[in-house]
Amino acid sequence: MAHNVVAERSMIRQTSEAIGAVPPAFTYYCTQRAAQLHLPEQESYKLNRLVEDLELPPLQHHDAGEDAAAAAHLAIRLAELTGIFDVHQLFPAMKPSPAKKARSTSA
After folding, report:
1. What are the beta bridge partners of residue 30?
2. Contact 28, 94 (CB under 8 A)
């Protein structure tokens, strides 16, 4: 789970490819997409704005640990606001990224 999973998934894919590994097959849950679905009146879906608007614990934005904690707090708040506590219902389905074959690192 992360906020703006598209970016996170891209980083995981690029890093995996750089070391010649197959990207891991994760199930991704995106708090940004969940907020867009469940908070249609929200003006901005940026993590720092959602943290502020929903009165979540403050964060040091763009710090990986802080962003992860903020995404977790956001998921909990979305569940509380919607009454949806099933992760499959709270988070919209995401298309899995296609796995690519690992590059050979031998020359």
Report:
1. 2
2. yes
Q: What's the structural domain count of the chain?
A: 1
pLDDT score for 107 = 44
Residue 27, domain member (yes or no): yes
CA atoms within 13 A on the CB side of 106: 0
Nearest by Cα to 89 from 40, 37, 46: 37
Q: Is residue 102 in some structural domain?
A: no
Domain around 86: 5-90
Give me the amino acid identity at 25: A
In a domain, 15, yes or no: yes
What does the pLDDT look like over 58-75, one tens digit per residue?
A: 988 788 899 999 999 999
Tell me the per-residue pLDDT of 4-44, one tens digit each, with 9 for 90 and over: 999 989 999 999 999 999 998 888 899 999 999 999 999 99
CA–CA separation, 53 and 51 (whole Å): 6
Q: Is residue 9 included in any domain, yes or no?
A: yes
Q: Which pTM does this prediction carry?
A: 0.81
Both tokens of 23, joined, read 């990207």
